[in-house]
Amino acid sequence: MPHFTFSLSSDGMVVDAMFGLDGTKTTALVQAGQAVPRPVQARALLDNGCDRTAIAPHIAQKLGLQMLVPAVSQTASGKVPVKVYRASLSIFGPGGSAGPALVFSDLLVSELTTPLPNLDALIGMDVLRECLLILNGPGQQFILGF
Amino acid sequence: MQVKDFDRLPTIHYTQMPEPMADSPSYREETAFRRELPRLLAEGNEGKWALIKGDEIIGVYDDFEDGYRVGLQRYLTQLFILQPVREWQPVLRMRY
């Protein structure tokens, strides 16, 4: 099983990720002769307390993502409307984008309702359920296999 | 999360959904969906997906992908929304 070994950061299990348009929309834009926005790099926290992957608003703005499915979110402060987009996600190893990557070409991601310092995205259980995740606390490392 | 995951989410009755936010870019679409949902349910569309643009329900589709493709064909760079036609609407759980 391919895997990446990362160092734990002060923010926790943080990885370099990249968000882009989903495959269906990318194909539609290419067929229409329109420009496809470049993927956006993100500092993302692996968060097993989060059901769904969520992105900061600036990522959606840079990609020109259109809210696709308005949804209801249950947060600590009650039920609130939340934006859901369709996007692609790539997670790279410590070596960066030159090596292999864990790729999800079609993911529904919600928008963060609260800004998170130093973070652009939360990788939730929807993605982590597809992976092997080992936390080596004393060794200050974590392993992500896929 | 993928579209199929909507079936695994907790739900609330559609009458309990919060009102669309007035500053939302899709306020018109969300309001139209809220207005039309009882009719769509009464017409036997439970489980389908509604494609909405402006104040209008453009179509109802058995499959999310079908609605998405039609939406992209008609409104490639414009805002449109897809909504699950369900009496019990899915709820995302977020810590933040």
Protein described:
The complex is a heterodimer of chains A (146) and B (96). Chain A contains three helices and eleven strands. With 146 residues, chain A is mainly beta. A six-stranded mixed beta barrel of chain A has the order 2-3-9-4-8-7. Chain A has a three-stranded antiparallel β-sheet with strand order 1-11-10, with no helix packed on it. A two-stranded antiparallel ribbon of chain A has the order 5-6. In chain A, β7 and β8 form a beta hairpin. With 96 residues, chain B is an alpha+beta fold. Chain B is built from two helices and five strands, in the order βαββαββ. In chain B, the strands form two sheets. A three-stranded antiparallel β-sheet of chain B has the order 3-2-4, with helices on both faces. Chains A and B meet through α1, β5, β6 and β8 of A and α2, β4 and β5 of B.
Radius of gyration of chain B: 13 Å
Q: Could you give me the name of the CATH homologous superfamily of chain A?
A: Acid Proteases
Q: Catalogue the unreliable spans of chain A.
A: none
SSE class of chain B: alpha+beta
Give the strand order of the largest sheet of chain B, numbering strands 1, 2, ... along the chain.
3-2-4
How many DSSP H or I helices of chain A? 3
Give the overall form of chain A.
Answer: globular
Per CATH, which architecture of chain A? Beta Barrel
Q: Biggest interface, which chains? A: A-B, 43 and 38 residues
Instruction: Please count the beta strands of chain B (DSSP E, at least 2 residues each).
Output: 5
Sheet bearing the most strands of chain A, described? 6 strands, mixed, barrel
Helix-strand pattern of chain A: EEHEEHEEEEEHEE
Whole-Å distance between the termini of chain B?
Answer: 17 Å
How many helices of chain B? The count is: 2
> In what order do the strands lie side by side in the largest sheet of chain A?
2-3-9-4-8-7
Largest sheet geometry of chain B: 3 strands, antiparallel
Proportion of helical residues of chain A: 10-25%
Oligomer: heterodimer
